Amino acid sequence: MTTITEEPKKKSTTSVHTVLQNVFCQQLRYVSCNSDYDIVCASDKRYYFNRCELAKVQCKERSLYEADFTSCGVHRM
Prior knowledge:
- It is built from two helices and three strands, in the order H-E-E-H-E.
- The chain has helices at 16-26, 51-58; strands at 40-42, 47-48, 66-67.
- InterPro entries: Kazal_dom, Kazal_dom_sf.
């Protein structure tokens, strides 16, 4: 008698955030950020007009993340 054993299926380790970011970046040419002025500081020590603008840059620089304002040299009140 021959026994066939199947290997367990691998679970996806892709986070929901990563999936959403990939979809966002694939549709980047259609993304129009609103003009809400809500400055954010990022890990590259640069300011971005709002989180949407930062998210657009993150499509090309995946290691970029929102940082505390002290990282950009300003203490936010």
